[in-house]
């Protein structure tokens, strides 16, 4: 799907998966199933690379997993080690050259790599590598990582990865393979998730544990921040290349990205969302006839809210499951119609009612505005919007495709201004404290930079300048 066709809101992350077995027992199919389960993390391109200890074969293309692979393609991918990727581009264009996994040949061997995340110093490293004569095939940050590893590969794969990790900065969950092993690496802050599963015949890696069910695997544990796990069919070897006093797991995984049936860093995503609904009900009660969600990610939140408030949960919007396959070229008018195509009001459930409408986030404000309008047109008496995250007020540089700060409504408008813009009768955002309470782990475990601007690492200079300007704009407004 082309980017213009996507919605204005928050977008997905990439998904990565890996498999290693004693022998080739449907390795490519397991990856196919795993990627299918991770499809929500990226819909632009998909790819699988499989290695039989000698040859590496791969196939990648633009489109959904089901569009990129058929039986014939999967049958060609023979081997007992494999990795896969579904992409939502964060650096470099959305085209087939930038599809992952990336496969490079070096000194008699092959390395394949799939990356979820975003580096903050990719430009600098790329310039240095290019100055040293390295040729790049793609425009993505991930190729910097694979080229660094290839460059140091005469020191052995582990030392090569260690040295590369000393140089790269940013967010990365990596699955890497060569002819001998499958390797999983997670950045020192643990910004992006990665977990290990055990199958009857070996091991698997995936961005989210929800992929394990269809891969026939059981969750063993998460790869820890700053950890490199080397997996052979016999077992897992672990080493830490860097260890920091804090973690910075992306809080948006729990709010929006991850599937509710995933467990990330010991937190059950479904329960976390339900808890945030309970906390929302406590933080800002309002009298109403029905609690409803913007499907799908907010459904557990609405259930939690209903449970805690005693107000019944009901369905007020029906989501068209096939929207991801639309290929119309949008004009603004078509976009407006497309929202209706995606979410249609259930007039019979809404008419004459005071509604509590729950969504996971407000980014530009377009979704909530359109939905409140739709519900009111369908006869809702009042619409009280409750959001299961604080205002998104700072851009993300670690892999979430948030727009520039000037387009973030939470960066430039006050809560009451936003309420008026979206035509809500009342508006409340979950407080950062409430969000952390819902997750049940200390705040120092998470990156909340999109809400408070406390980035867990230094940002590129341009980003710092942009942030500075916007903060002043907002503070000026609040002080007026
Ligand atoms: O304020 P906005 O800029 O509109 O962004 C916020 C919306 O973006 C996301 O939904 P999205 O429509 O991207 O996808 P979803 O169907 O997976 O929730 C998120 O769930 C919010 O609904
Ligand atoms: N969303 C992601 O994790 C993207 C990975 C990588 N930066 C790319 O653009 O391909
Ligand atoms: Mg949404």
TrEMBL record:
Mg(2+) binds at residues 297, 359-360. [4Fe-4S] cluster binds at residues 250, 396, 447, 450. Residues 14-234 form the Glutamine amidotransferase type-2 domain. Pfam families: GATase_6, Pribosyltran. The gene is purF. Pathway: Purine metabolism; IMP biosynthesis via de novo pathway; N(1)-(5-phospho-D-ribosyl)glycinamide from 5-phospho-alpha-D-ribose 1-diphosphate: step 1/2. The lineage of its organism: Bacteria, Bacillati, Bacillota, Clostridia, Peptostreptococcales. This is Amidophosphoribosyltransferase. Signal peptide: none annotated.
